[in-house]
Amino acid sequence: MNKFHQVTTQLEQALGGVHYEELDISDEVKEQVELVLSQFQRAKGRVDTPDAELREDLLSLYRKSNDPAIDPAVLRKLVKKLQLTGLYDLTQESCALHDMVTATGEDPEERIEKMSLVLRKIKGFVLTETPEIDSSSREKSSTCSGQASIEATHKAPVIPDDFRCPISLELMKDPVIVSSGQTYERSSIEKWLEAGHSTCPKTQQVLTSNVVTPNYVLRSLIAQWCEMNGVESPKRPGSSPNKSTSACTPAEHSTIENLLRKLTSGSPEDRLSATGEIRLLAKRNADNRVAIAEAGAIPLLVDLLSTPDSRIQEHAVTALLNLSICEDNKRSIVTSGAVPGIVHVLKKGSMEARENAAAALFSLSVIDENKVIIGTFGAIPPLVTLLSDGTQRGKKDAATALFNLCIYQGNKGKAVRAGVVVTLMGLLMEPQGGMIDEALAILAILSSHPEGKTTIGAAGAVPVLVNVITNGSPRNKENAAAVLVHLCSGDQHHLVDVQELGIMGPLVDLVQNGTERGRRKATQLLERINRYAEQQKQAQTEPEAPIHNQLSQSPPSSTDVLEC
């Protein structure tokens, strides 16, 4: 761990010392470097520092294991730092020691005997300090591997493993799902997260969010099992005050739970009917959307995105689209790993499924952090494809999703490289003109990116944009002007082109009668045209330098060339 920490520190220092903002690299690369640097900084901050005091206290107790007089203050510190405050924790330590004894061939070494004495002292101190723990609790907590429990001697029903919390190993009262898809008892996972852990205890997968979702299906199954086996159903603690709840009736909750059981059924017909009904319920009202998410439907629907049955796939992606209308559900859908599945549907699904997948990505991308995730999982190329060959509705859905995603700078280059500029230019020149608004809005965003600016200029956009400023709607005029402002920045060829195409009159009109943004962009463009005209006039009036002076001038440096 120390070696890894040293390497992390060296990498963080090396990256931190590079003035990459002075290098001729794209904004996307700069953002990637910043992201990596911030990850190294977080990793450096998470490393635990050695606890010398803990080590000394533990060694002192280890060396004096046969000494009956041990300082209670030392024991109190050890109990707290080693988190051995309860009988369950102490039992786990006892089981670990039992396994060590077994590994030595039932011949415990001296160090294991000493460790056992240390553990007994700590256990005795805990029981003394916590008198409310009764003897029955102690007996129940004393079971190690290879020993029979008290419950087993009375032939109590064995609790199914799926009903036990992986952390506490107790029957769950309030099961909740974390972003890795695993289920835990709410109180146990909340303590785990509050302790600063950022991974799933069972899978060690990094949790993308601390949000937990109630698992109503499992809670219902646990209640049924308790009733069938004569076990008192566990009382669920009060709901968290921050948790959103629905106003659905118990009967409606029961309907939703039955549908979720069908989702996990082996019958394709059951899954098809269940996804179709959930799709309609989620469309109907906000209470249904909350209740369906609370019941744990999102991970189940995500699993169905990869099903070979196109009908189930279409229902599943549409249900997720409808659920995403609820703001609280947007993060839950992404943290449940839905984005790769939605992208898969966008590539391979039926036309209606592709349209709804694009609409779902648009809805999810309202949250800024989701824009990065969606772009990372390769959603942009299939969105560009849908923008090109989809139905009118599909093109609209793809355009709105692309617009939202390209607000994030890192996605702009991906969209340009996916060929979106050529597609947008085609939409601008369609006879019916049904996508002009969307095409110009996306071009206005992409023109601020170096790759976007170059590609738009090379696609012959200038005449089309001048025509829009002359004849388009107020909103389209402002977007066309915004694109030309970027294209004409530092490019005299485009400045010459727009003047030759007669843009001055329409620009003056836009300054006087356009929208606020349109007036601002038209003013900027006029200023650049006038500044260029002044420079040209000055160049024509300046006397030509003598030829011997021209020959004596040094050749331009690389810096001069770059500045040009």
Tell me what you see in this structure.
- By secondary structure, this protein is mostly helical.
- Among the domains are: 1-44; 49-128, no CATH class; 161-229, Zinc/RING finger domain, C3HC4 (zinc finger) (Herpes Virus-1, 2-Layer Sandwich); 419-538, Leucine-rich Repeat Variant (Alpha Horseshoe).
- The chain has 32 helices and three strands.
Task: Write a brief caption for the model.
This protein is mainly α and 564 residues long.
* Strand neighbour order, sheet with most strands: 2-1-3
What is the helix fraction of residues, given as a range?
55-70%
Radius of gyration of CA atoms, rounded to a whole number: 33 Å
**Largest sheet entry:** 3 strands, antiparallel
CATH class type of the domain at 419-538: Mainly Alpha
- Would you tell me the structural class of the helices and strands? mainly alpha
Q: State the low-pLDDT regions, or none.
A: 133-155, 238-243, 547-564
Tell me the number of helical segments per DSSP (H or I, 4 or more residues long): 32
